[in-house]
């Protein structure tokens, strides 16, 4: 609820990494790992901002932020085929109006 993100290992109750205020205090609505690249994850906040984290590129801050204007995004799902090396990775955004928007991710964050 405060925008913090924690990375845990299954064998410990303490986080390996913690990023406080990672969404400028906005609650995190959804967080999903990329299906094609293990070091990349996506965060959706309550203000309809999507943050892309690539831990191999920068483990302190997101590598990109994209605002989704005009229609609140209520949830997201990551799309991709991990068994294929095409680097095709997308995010399905469910909007408050009932519309579904599919956005594709740049190959540099999608390739294995």
What does it look like?
This protein is mostly beta strands. It has one domain (5-109). It is 0% helix and 46% strand. It contains no helices and 9 strands. The chain has strands at residues 5-8, 15-19, 28-33, 40-45, 49-54, 64-67, 73-80, 89-95, 100-104. Strands 3-4-5-6 form a 4-stranded antiparallel sheet, with no helix packed on it. It has a 3-stranded antiparallel sheet with strand order 7-8-9, with no helix packed on it. Strands 1-2 form a two-stranded antiparallel ribbon. It is globular and about 40 Å long. The chain starts with a strand and ends in an 8-residue tail after the last strand. The relative contact order is 0.19. The mean pLDDT is 91.
Descriptive key words:
three-stranded antiparallel beta sheet; four-stranded antiparallel beta sheet; 0% helix; 112 residues; mainly beta; globular
User: Uncertain regions: pLDDT < 50 for 5+ in a row?
Assistant: none
Helix/strand class: mainly beta
Helix content: under 10%
Largest sheet: 4 strands, antiparallel
Q: Work out the number of β strands.
A: 9
End-to-end Cα distance, whole Å, is 31 Å
Q: Provide the residue-averaged pLDDT.
A: 91
Total number of helices = 0
Shape: globular
Question: What is the number of independent domains?
Answer: 1
Run of helices and strands: EEEEEEEEE
Question: What proportion of the residues form beta strands (DSSP E)?
Answer: over 45%
Radius of gyration: 14 Å
